[in-house]
Amino acid sequence: MLKVFKYTLIDLARNRFVLGYALLMLLVAQGLFALEGDPTKALLSLVQVVMALVPLIALVFTVVYMYDTIEFTQLLAVQPMTRSAILGGQLLALATALLLAQAVGLGLPLLVHSPTMAALVLSLSGSVLVLVFAALGALIALKQREKARGVGVALAIWFLFVLVYDALLMWAMFTLSDYPIEPFVVPLAGINPIDLARIMVMLQVDLAAMMGYSGAIYKNFFGSVGGTVVAALILLLWIAIPVLLAFRVFKRKDL
Amino acid sequence: MAEARIILQGVGKRYGALWALRHVDCAFHAGEVVMLIGPNASGKTTLIKSLLGLVRPTEGLIKVNDEVIGSDPAYRRAIGYMPQISQFPATLTIGQLLEMMADIRELGKSELEDSLVEELGLAAQLDKRLSTLSGGTKQKVSAVLALRTRPSILVMDEPTAGLDPVSSKRVLQRAAAVRDTGGTVLITSHLMEEVESLADRVAYLEDGTLKFLLPVQEVLERTGAKRVSEALPRMLESNAMSNIL
Amino acid sequence: MRKGLILILACVTGGPLVAHSWTYRAGTSGTLQQVIGKATAGDTIIVDGTVSEGSIHVDRSLVLLGGTDAVIDGGGKNDALRITADDVTVKGFTIRGSRRSNLDDMAGIKVNECRGVVISDNFVDQCFFAIYLSGAKDALIEGNTVLGEPGDEDHMANGIHLWKCSNATIRNNRIEYHRDGIYFEFVTDSHIIGNTSLHNLRYGLHFMFSHRDAYEDNHFEDNGAGVAVMFSKEIAMRRNHFVANRGASAYGLLLKEINDGEIIGNTFQDNTTGIMIDGCNRINVHDNEFRLNGWALRLFANAIDCDFRGNTFAGNTFDVSTNGSLIPNTMNGNYWDRYAGYDLDRDGYGDVPHRPLGFFTLLVEMQPYAMVFSRSLFVSLLDRAERLIPSLTPESMKDDRPLMRPPASLKKGTDHVEEKQDAPAGKVTANEGSSGGVLWLLVGVAFLSSIRYLFPHG
């Protein structure tokens, strides 16, 4: 597995897309900090960029990369090594490359311009989103034989998590506002990994508003130690379940 | 007859509703070259991939060196495989690829047979990026990868496609050498003429079914043909088939 | 020596006032109350040591100076120190041990119906009320430190409490852990300057029915609810800091039924609500900074003729919210970090108006739990659509001349302006529009380029 990890990582290090991702994030982050003058505002703008763009890029890139390397995967699969070792090495390398790119593109400018708790949480949330959506991307690529369909499914999933889920949830909230929706509000908001990551960042940047009576329900849950543990656990499941499924699929997959 | 290296017992493979292989029983032995032929989509590649572990058979079992293949990948140490179409990581050079594959197999220089690199004229191109190579050169690289680990089982899927005649000949010579040192060689090819001089036995697949697996000599004798390519239509028409099946 | 000089001068001029200077050391013969009884108006008493003879009553115009370790301990009986004469000065004491009683309003220092009292440089330690003035005129309360005890509202009273006073000056005091830090009721023409009011249970500063007062350069942090100004007229509020007043009903500044006030040059940061304006008329809110608040401004529909200009709104979750639609107030020339417009004529003001009341703000007013969608892509989409085609947000609530840069950055010097002029003509100084635009551009490009994979033959 370490060998696969090593060589996949070497391949990824030379991959234009990964470098492009790092540069793009660097450009956006630096651009925002330079343009805004006010680091707080730049950070808030970055929150939106990270929450929308990071899942998209992690998802689409992983899907495309998995398809593009299918022959290499075949070459590895006829070597005396297990399927788990191959996928494990590849996924580790993908995660490492994307996280490194993100550390350079996002973490570095944050560290330089805004070394705050909010920036740290944003960095961490962004990293977790990378892992979640890379895992989902790998699962999609292994499930779908055709690249075009795989990318289509990836885009649909991104769209669902980034926009449709929130829209539906908000619609439900307003439609059912006459009913006691309170018990459902926290769990439903916490299921979507993008929402969950965003809430973690919100607890930093919108803390003042979250202390108000409407935000308090979120603050009291996600702001507590127990809530943070639950949130971390949910995000961990969002990584672990797709990865485990991906292993299951890959072990039985005909290459 | 020499020992059986590869044994297929009732191997079947279904993709959705389509059976790519139907209940194939056969054995490949040490010290022979088997030529695997059949029309497009007859199941040749599926059969090869099954014994490489790339494809998981729906039914039946495969033994390689007396081991039933399953989750333990160790049996593949003995196998050299040259796929039909070779795509390599685009960012690597030929040299880096060779190095990497040796590293993955954990083989040192002394354990490798790299004279083919020179012979196929790749020595001067070691620094070339794999993405810039022509199909033929990629085939050469693929052949080197399959042969350099001194395999006792060599599997080649259309090895001569895209290769120039000289290189084709050299690659096939190497395959013969594997056989001559007691190895088992499986070759699929549309260009039967190239391979038949090398082949000891010929296996014919159609529609996922193994129609026959006979010594080349016997096929020619039964049909009175001089070449396998000529013999094949007669074999399929004749009643001779029923005798074997 | 100086005292002697004063004494001689008094003798020579033959004035009616012959001032004496007394020194009283606690534990020596007699009590402080006896010394006060012997002294005459204009005398000075210097006190050393811990006086614990119960409540001390100053009934004539004296100067009480605390020596190095002067303590007046009321021993839990009534007020520790009670002043009922004009022109009394109390300086440099530690005061403690007043009785805790809601019925009798007991205080560390209580001043009743007198003129010209000076209370300075004292440390009032865990008294019920700390400094309590009723019916005082021309009082000066300066440099005191007032430390209460954390508890519940029933067992806490105000730090500096003024009732029916006028012309008072409250300057450079520090008040912590009381119910209200400073409380004004029926107090007129008074000044509150440079005080620090922290960790108070209710308000850092609280006005009721008080008029023509001003508070300036004070710091209010982590109080139950910052500052409350209620039922008062002509209150000037300048250059104060309202920080971290957070909670369900916490405000940096709560205005209720206020007329003709001005709020100028203050900073509101990290408050759940920066300013809450309820039923106010003619308030000028100018040149303030609102940063990182939950709601920078909550403007009830019953606020009329309030004027907002030159303010900076940055990093707030919501800039402005309201509970109604009729907004007869004016907004002009403020800086909004959410402004997405442009400045083609380069006059420093955006060319299109800014509508600070976001669609999402209204949604949260209707359904508070929708708060959880803050800063999501969906919400920013909604907000953007609403700004392009306003449907729900009130048409009248807008800033016609939004600033392109925070006014504070413009004040810093002229170099900034020069830099602006050096920029190539025609270059648009854009605001959040640029960053938001960049985001949307990226999303668009990413989306379009990925569509290629969806329909590879299309």
Structure notes:
- The complex is a heterotrimer of chains A (255), B (245) and C (458).
- With 255 residues, chain A is an all-alpha fold.
- Chain A is 86% helix and 0% strand.
- With 245 residues, chain B is an alpha/beta fold.
- In chain B, 34% of the residues lie in helices and 27% in strands.
- The longest helix of chain B is centred in the C-terminal third of the chain and has 16 residues, at 165-180.
- The relative contact order of chain B is 0.17.
- Chain C is of the alpha/beta class.
- Chain C has 7 helices and 39 strands.
- Chain C has a 14-stranded parallel sheet with strand order 1-2-5-8-11-14-17-20-23-26-29-32-35-38, with helices on one face. Chain C has a 13-stranded parallel sheet with strand order 3-6-9-12-15-18-21-24-27-30-33-36-39, with no helix packed on it.
- The radius of gyration of chain C is 29 Å and the shape is elongated.
- The chains are: A mainly alpha (255), B alpha/beta (245), C alpha/beta (458).
- At the A-C interface, helix 2, helix 3, helix 7, helix 8 and helix 9 of A face helix 3, helix 4 and helix 7 of C.
Topology:
The complex is a heterotrimer of chains A (255), B (245) and C (458).
Chain A: H1 2-13, H2 16-36, H3 39-68, H4 70-77, H5 83-113, H6 117-143, H7 147-175, H8 182-191, H9 193-205, H10 207-210, H11 216-222, H12 225-252
Helix pairs in contact in A: 1-5, 2-3, 2-5, 3-5, 3-6, 3-7, 3-9, 5-6, 5-12, 6-7, 6-9, 6-12, 9-12
Chain B: E1 4-15, E2 18-29, E3 32-37, H1 44-52, E4 59-64, E5 67-68, E6 79-82, H2 94-105, H3 115-119, H4 135-147, E7 153-157, H5 165-180, E8 184-188, H6 192-196, E9 201-206, E10 209-215, H7 216-223, H8 228-237, H9 240-244
Parallel strand pairs in B: 3-8, 3-9, 6-7, 7-8
Antiparallel strand pairs in B: 1-2, 1-4, 4-5, 9-10
Helix pairs in contact in B: 7-8
Chain C: H1 2-13, E1 21-25, H2 32-38, E2 44-48, E3 50-51, E4 56-58, E5 63-66, E6 71-73, E7 81-83, E8 89-91, E9 94-96, E10 107-112, E11 118-120, E12 123-125, E13 129-134, E14 140-142, E15 145-147, E16 160-163, E17 169-171, E18 174-176, E19 182-185, E20 191-193, E21 196-198, E22 205-208, E23 214-216, E24 219-221, E25 227-230, E26 236-238, E27 241-243, E28 251-256, E29 262-264, E30 267-269, E31 273-278, E32 284-286, E33 289-291, E34 295-299, E35 307-309, E36 312-314, E37 318-322, E38 330-332, E39 335-336, H3 359-366, H4 377-388, H5 407-411, H6 415-422, H7 432-454
Parallel strand pairs in C: 1-2, 2-5, 3-6, 4-7, 5-8, 6-9, 7-10, 8-11, 9-12, 10-13, 11-14, 12-15, 13-16, 14-17, 15-18, 16-19, 17-20, 18-21, 19-22, 20-23, 21-24, 22-25, 23-26, 24-27, 25-28, 26-29, 27-30, 28-31, 29-32, 30-33, 31-34, 32-35, 33-36, 34-37, 35-38, 36-39
